[in-house]
Design goal:
Layout: H1 2-20, H2 25-45, H3 49-78
Helix pairs in contact: 1-2, 2-3
Length: 79
């Protein structure tokens, strides 16, 4: 299982680097949401299910939706 955890950490780093270099804001926000889901998986592995649920609900879910709404509204105002 340590191999899986190391693989998830490597995927988080790769996704974070890819998010920084994205040209599209929507793609970057979705990648950051995916990183939050991977962090919540690691919290489950560390036997902290309450923290994992909070991370998944707030960081991966709510924050991603708020960022996507903000991007959509600013794009409408720019046009």
């Amino acid at each position: 299982m340590i191999f899986v955890d190391a693989l998830v950490c490597a995927a988080m780093i790769a996704t974070a680097i890819a998010a920084v270099f994205q040209r599209s804001l929507i793609s970057a926000v979705i990648m950051v949401g995916f990183i939050s889901l991977m962090v919540s998986y690691l919290f489950v592995r560390m036997d902290a299910p309450d923290v994992a649920m909070t991370e998944a609900a707030i960081a991966a879910g709510l924050t991603t939706v708020i960022f996507l709404i903000a991007i959509r509204r600013t794009e409408d105002e720019e046009k």
